[in-house]
Amino acid sequence: MPVDDNDPNDAFEVRFTEALHQAGSGFEPPRQDLAARGEARGRRRAFRRQAAVLGGVTTVALIGVGGALMLPGGQAVGSHSSSTGASSPSVPPATSAATTSVSGDALVHTLEKLLPKGEFSDEEARGTGDPLPPFAKVVYDDGNGKAAVAVSFSRLRPGGQEARQTTECPDKVFIAFDTCRTTTLDDGSKLMILKGYEYPNSRSGTKLWTAEYVSRTGQHVSVQEWNAAAEKDAPVTRALPPLTAEQLSQLATARQWRTALDAVLVPPAAADPSPARGVPGGSVSSTLVSLLPKGVRVVSKSSADAGFGYAVLDDGKGASLVQVNVQGDQSDVENELFGAGTKTLPNGMKVVTHQRPGEKGGEGVVWWTVDTIRPDGYRVVISAFNSGAQNTAATRSTPALTMQQLETIATNAKWYARH
Question: From which domain of life does this come (predicted)?
């Protein structure tokens, strides 16, 4: 998808995913988590979780804990945490929970035994002895058309933020999907079944159905299936993926994966990042709502997050999504972000505005942005759309807030009350 020159988050998002895919050598786990948790709960926090699943320790070490921010053109311009004011504690290396390793061939064999009767081809796998996370993937044909089916394994810190988010359904404001359900099993483990699409900004094309299982001890099994022989660049071969929701659940929770899970590295004990001190109450969405002009109704808003938040507004003329990103010191990318058209306020804050078409697939959607940065690098970016979601058609001709109203909100001192 296109990368906007003035949205380093999207540039980072695209290139980070590509880098992890290349490092992972073949298997590309679901991107719903990137889009959903990336948008609604702070993008880089989600990238760190995906890195553990996708690219393993090697890739994470190269990119860094917070991820090198990638600008258009591919240059790395620094590493930043989404939680401004949070420190990055040193953590001990991960340790192995068991000495028995499981080969890639064994994982493929187990996957094929657990699937209903059918024909298999194009097997791919990586065992638990590899530095990168283990997985198995096959093309499965039950007589109704070929379909790619894959399973991957990782370990998450029990009770931690990443473990919780892995089984949380994504936000429909950002992700197009048909159904999603999270269940707490009898032993306290969590299971999420998501019926979505390979390209999560659209309800068309290749379907991707996913099961995410996280045990009380942090063992994570991710199962994906498509209605095509490959996750992308392959024609649809059947109306639906082959496994039902119940079959996905059984595959993700199968006891036959226990040995492989026991051999996966146990994550080091580390506390979740502390909330940002720059946003009152640690909630971007609540701060945004408090700054809205009178007469605008809030239809919905995101949950509390210190780095990202949104609200869907309606002034009687149709739904309009407004979202805000708050970031710590961005001084090293200031010149790239604040070039032509930038104005400097008396307090030294720089402001630049952009009006452009939306890029998430919604027909007729426009995207208005006000980007600000203080002399100390503290950055607040607000965007508004003429639709209640970026991936749905426009509901009105322009966003509910004018460019001047967006600038008034973005430059308000309330964002910096605790910074």
Answer: Bacteria
Q: Backbone phi, then psi, for 33, in 5-degree steps?
A: -60, -35
What mean pLDDT do residues 312-325 have?
A: 95
Retrieve residue 319's tokens: 């739904």
Question: What does the pLDDT look like over 192-204, one tens digit per residue?
Answer: 999 999 886 666 6
Q: Any idea which residue has 């200031």 for tokens?
A: 334
Using alpha carbons, select from 134, 277, 155 the residue that is nearest to residue 216.
155
Among 237, 266, 295, where does a domain finish? 266
Which range of residues forms the domain containing residue 74? 8-84
Q: How confident is the model at residue 89 (pLDDT cuts 50, 70, 90)?
A: very low
Pairing assessment for the beta strands 146-155 and 135-141 based on DSSP bridges: antiparallel
Task: Tell whether 174 and 311 lie within a shared domain.
Answer: no
And the tokens for 211?
Answer: 């099961």
- Please give the model's pTM, rounded to 2 decimal places: 0.68
Question: Under a CB-based contact definition with an 8 Å cutoff, are residues 95 and 267 in contact?
Answer: no
- 43-54 helix and 8-24 helix, angle to the nearest 10 degrees: 10
95 DSSP β-pair partners:
266
